[in-house]
Amino acid sequence: MTEHTKTDGLPGIDVPLAAAEPAARDARTASPKVECNACPVLCQISEGRTGACDRYANRAGALVRVDPVVLLRRTLEAGTPELVPFAARAEPQGAEAPAALAPAEWSGDLLHADEVFVTGVGSSTTYPDYKPAPFIVASQARGVDMVTVVTEGIFSYCSFKVKIDTDRFLGPEQANIRCKGEVVGHVTTAEYGSQMLSLGGVHHLTGGSKKEGRITAEMMQLLGNKKAVELTIDGGSQIVVQAGRAPIVNGVEEQRMRVGCGSATIGIFAKQLLGHVDEVVVVDDHITGVLTEHQAGRCLDMRRSGIQMRGRKSTPGRYFQVANPGTGWGGTDIAEPLSIIEGWNPEVAWPGLRLLMTSTTGEHASWYVLDEALRPVEQAMPAAVRAVVDRIGENCEPSLSTVLFLGGAGGSLRAGVTDNPVRLTRAIKQALVNVTCGGAPAYVWPGGGITVMADVMRMPDDSFGTVPTPAIVAPIEFSMALENYRLLGGHMEYVRPLAEVLGRGAWHDDGAPTALRWAHNAPGNPWPLGQPPLLG
Ligand code: SF4
């Protein structure tokens, strides 16, 4: 007999230690278990229970996918989208029972060919890879016969690229990022007003300890499903990241994304400050700007102030490394802005000189006047100067966390599309196939393989799952002209009309309709059923 072990915290889950025998029986009930082969874990599932990923269940001896398939309905071009009710889904009957499924109700009037799109969310997988995709759907788009190949990919090779709009120092480039103490990613480059993080990836899923892989998968699922994750950066900050929300850095919710670097801020507002100031310093961790030295000040014929800055002078009016990175003024570690001023040239500066110091967001700003000894004395900021500082703040966009899924679909799931997988890869590169993730547009990277990137905010809620191998489960769809599908060696015998799919479910369902759930094409998303050109 096959040996089994329970998985911690997941009641009712039996995970085989070795290859399972199809006729395994539940020791308590003596009823036959069902083997799930939708991923390499090969769970033996007792009746009324779910497998290790909670995505499949044994319902009356039949293996069912617990979550409904998400169908997109095209949003109306103008006005409020018409709402279509979700299919009913009963709550689980007790802790061990899987959710009951109810087939979707749909009305024939929805079945206008280019209004409905079957997404990979909840669709099931092609594992062990030789199987055709669960849904290969024929429809028409503007008179062209189309086909969409729909599946849930199991991605071992995938990660999330996260853009955090903040000037504050999150951590050194290449620093490890931890979740619950495990390393799950690293800090990568700083971009214009944002800090980039790379989270997840095959190295952390498979290359470390079992715990590291499990925590990485959990973190990735949460992030992809638009939930908050708490991360700690070695040598840096503690942050909370959630797609579409402002990041929280060391317990403080970030408000503004800077208008530009210190040099750009000088240039943008130089004319508005002219006449109201004698010198302006825009403090920035990367490029601090000094107005009268800067090209903008020189073009406006501003008198030099004689200010002497700390840091390394790059070009006139642009200084690098005026302080260390931190969470103070302009992403530096300073709380006292005058600390970055070395002194004043007494040959050039004059008593009464008016100095504005501000950060790149305008969140920090102080006003000084030089006394007889050329020492800056803080004073109340004049209204005209305050108005420009406010304008800097007004030009800052709201700070957001942006989460992009990056997955390599160049592997085996292509076999679910065609017997000759490289033809799919080539057709995608020739722009003959539209690739979407849960109906959201996917950017396909140039070069080999099918490496796709999609904004999780454009995907349906709860698009991501995990399997305990560990790997991420994510939806992917390939849409193309039916004729192209035939030419690239597609599984033509599995192509089924949309109406049949809506009525019966996946091709491998044993007569029981798949539960369906409606969602709307996200605002701004192009309709996935475009019209790719025909193969030549
Ligand atoms: S973990 Fe894998 S084998 Fe087990 S239920 Fe989930 S998909 Fe099926």
Explain this structure:
- This protein is an alpha+beta fold and 536 residues long.
- Helices cover 13% and strands 32% of the residues.
- It has eight helices and 38 strands.
- It has an eleven-stranded antiparallel β-sheet.
- The radius of gyration is 29 Å and the shape is elongated.
- The relative contact order is 0.16.
- The structure holds iron/sulfur cluster.
- Residues 36, 38-39, 41-43, 51-53, 55-56, 467-468 line the site of iron/sulfur cluster.
Write the layout of secondary structure elements.
Elements: E1 4-6, E2 14-16, E3 34-35, E4 44-45, E5 56-59, E6 62-65, E7 69-73, E8 116-118, E9 135-141, E10 144-155, E11 158-165, E12 176-179, E13 182-191, E14 194-200, H1 202-206, H2 210-224, E15 229-233, E16 238-241, E17 248-249, E18 252-253, E19 256-257, H3 262-273, E20 279-283, E21 288-290, H4 295-299, E22 307-309, E23 312-315, E24 318-320, E25 341-344, E26 354-359, E27 365-370, E28 376-378, H5 383-394, E29 397-398, E30 401-408, H6 421-429, E31 434-437, E32 440-441, E33 443-444, E34 451-455, E35 465-467, E36 471-481, H7 482-487, E37 496-497, H8 498-504, E38 516-520
Parallel strand pairs: 7-38, 9-37, 20-26
Antiparallel strand pairs: 1-2, 3-4, 5-6, 7-8, 9-10, 10-36, 11-14, 11-30, 12-13, 12-15, 13-14, 15-16, 16-17, 17-18, 19-29, 20-21, 21-24, 22-25, 23-24, 26-27, 27-28, 30-34, 31-32, 31-36, 33-34, 35-36
Helix pairs in contact: 3-5
This protein binds iron/sulfur cluster.
